[in-house]
Write a structure and sequence with these properties.
The longest helix has 34 residues. The chain is built from 24 helices and no strands. 70% of the residues lie in helices and 0% in strands. By secondary structure, it is mainly α.
């Protein structure tokens, strides 16, 4: 910490030690981010697994891209990702418009319902929809069969439609979080002018509101499309058995088998990564010169659009979204956890034996501890690191601050499974002394989670720090305080609400993450998400998996409530 004492002046770095410390932090970030990605490309030209790599070869690329299945998988990944992104965007825009630009009753609570959806772990939600929509054992199809004997299933969740349905419900909440600040910040006078000129509400939305919000919407759309392309749980649980293949499940199929086919999996991963980076570059090009100023010194208004009687319809639609996205899956999980046989309503179908079995299983206890430990350590250590990165980027003129900011953003474009493969090669196949001992340990998972959380954590810290005036720190320094004392007593208290909110989000994301840990966890470091996955996919213990899913959901929702309370206090304080 002492080496950072020159960082207090916003316009320059003062002192040789300060520059060295900031440079060291940049090099550390480069090692954590760039080195694994380099090893990913390096490993794609090697034969065999990372712990026994062979000579350089193009066999992986030849085998992967000489197969028509690869191109069918790529096409399915692209069109399925694009369709889900468009549908989720449409729903997210509607939700954001209702809670920020209309007089719909209870808007504050409606926004909370969407936030709850955002926090829900995806794996249990997918399992819940299997309970609801399985053609043979789904609650909905069984109810129809009871009411109309001889009637076949009316829904089949194991289909493209099922994947799209579950994904759109989940991703609409995520895109809502991304675009809502732009909706809330837009000056209502622009919409008023349109309506005074005789335009209808729909015309105003189409010709004024959406074009002004286009930069934020385009940015959110590309970012969401990148993440939807790496989606895994819905595609595996709902589509794999039906022959539906996307890149994430194809890479899983190549690497999560015995023996794993690393050359082909690495070749697919590197090209997949290049496609994603190309999409992000396209986003930069689209937004480079596209800016709209909507808040000026002439006045600023956020008057809601009056919907009249239609406001009760918008209220009902948001509540339906909450019921479909949260209430119905949660009740399905709760009911399924007490069923004797998964999804089968036999005579006397209810039992608590699965709950007893889970709580008496040492694997559950160990996995729960692992999940909490991974979440606590990665979120805490990560947020401290992100705070210092944010400070250097926003409060100094360190020569490498742009590179530091870019490095902190880079993991956003790396899918979780690809990131895991990169770290396998970096730490197991990279020849670093003692690094192989990290494989299968909880510490390697923590490191990967910290790297994965970099974009979110640093962005939150940047947004919070940039709002702080330099005079606060300068006053402390004039009185003789050191940089560390100033940071601890002046800066830290002011950014604490943002720090805690981001910490809770990163904790939740680490606890519920499945795709990143599949290739990294060992028998002693298996988190709850992976144990749930093993019960569901390979263990023939779907009932126990549902119990674990319900437990994970309750734990995460508790943290979601805490995050919302902290966010509300932050709004009141500001």
């Amino acid at each position: 910490m002492a080496g950072l004492q020159g960082l207090e002046q916003p316009k320059s770095l003062r002192g040789h030690g300060s520059t060295i410390s900031a440079t060291a932090l940049t090099l550390l970030l480069a090692f954590l981010v760039v080195y694994p990605l380099f090893m990913l490309f390096y490993g794609s030209f090697k034969g065999g697994p990372p712990y026994a790599a062979e000579n350089f070869t193009l066999k992986g690329y030849v085998d992967a891209y000489s197969s028509l299945e690869t191109y069918r998988t790529l096409w399915t990944t692209l069109w399925l990702g694009a369709l889900r992104t468009v549908l989720a965007l449409a729903l997210a825009v509607f939700l954001a418009w209702v809670v920020t630009r209309t007089d719909t009753p209870g808007k504050r609570w409606l926004e909370v319902t969407v936030w709850v959806q955002f926090f829900l772990p995806f794996q249990p939600i997918v399992m819940a929809w299997v309970l609801i929509g399985s053609p043979n054992t789904g609650f909905l199809n069984q109810a129809v069969a009871q009411l109309f004997p001889g009637h076949g299933p009316i829904v089949n969740i194991f289909s493209y439609g099922g994947i799209i349905w579950v994904s759109v419900i989940q991703w609409a909440s995520i895109m809502f979080i991304l675009i809502t600040p732009a909706f809330r910040a837009m000056d209502a006078a622009l919409e008023d002018s349109s309506r005074i000129s005789g335009a209808s509400g729909f015309a105003t939305l189409r010709r004024v509101t959406l074009p002004i919000l286009a930069p934020s919407i385009i940015g959110a759309t590309v970012l969401a499309f990148v993440k939807i392309m790496e989606s895994f749980e819905a595609e595996l649980f709902l589509g794999y058995s039906q022959g539906i293949r996307v890149f994430s499940t194809q890479i899983y199929n190549l690497l999560y088998v015995d023996p794993p086919r690393y050359p082909q999996g690495m070749a697919l991963s590197t090209v997949f990564l290049l496609v994603i980076f190309a999409l992000i570059a396209l986003q930069w090009k689209l937004l480079r010169n596209r800016q709209y100023i909507t808040v000026t010194g002439r006045g600023y208004a956020t008057r809601p659009t009056r919907l009249g009687r239609w406001k009760y319809l918008t209220l009902a639609l948001v509540l339906v979204y909450f019921a479909v996205g949260v209430i119905v899956p949660f009740l399905s999980l709760l009911g399924g956890s007490f069923m004797r046989l998964f999804g089968i309503l036999v005579q006397d179908p209810w039992t608590a034996k699965h709950w007893v079995g889970v709580f008496s299983d040492p694997l559950f206890t160990r996995s729960l501890k692992n999940s909490l430990y991974i979440g606590l350590v990665s979120a805490t250590v990560g947020m401290v690191l992100y705070a210092f990165i944010g400070y250097i980027v926003t409060k100094t003129r360190f020569a490498g601050r742009k590179a530091l900011d870019f490095l902190s953003w880079l993991p956003w474009g790396v899918p979780g499974m690809v990131l895991a493969i990169a770290f396998l090669w970096a730490y197991v196949g990279g020849g670093i002394p003692l690094a192989r001992h990290l494989y299968g340990s909880i510490w390697l998972i923590i490191i990967v989670m910290m790297v994965k959380g970099l974009p979110l954590g640093v962005r939150v810290m940047n947004s919070s720090l940039v709002q702080l005036g330099n005079d606060l720190e300068e006053s402390s320094r004039v009185l003789g305080a050191s940089w560390f004392y100033t940071f601890r007593r002046v800066v830290a208290p002011l950014i604490t609400p943002a720090f805690i909110s981001a910490w809770i989000i990163l904790f939740v994301l680490s606890v519920r993450d499945l795709v990143t840990v599949l290739l990294l966890a060992g028998t002693q470091s298996r988190p709850l998400a992976m144990l749930m996955f093993e019960y569901w996919v390979g263990g023939g213990q779907a009932e126990k998996a549902i119990v674990l899913g319900l437990i994970q959901t309750v734990v995460i929702l508790a943290f979601a409530v805490a995050a919302r309370i902290i966010g509300a206090r932050r709004e009141l304080a500001s």
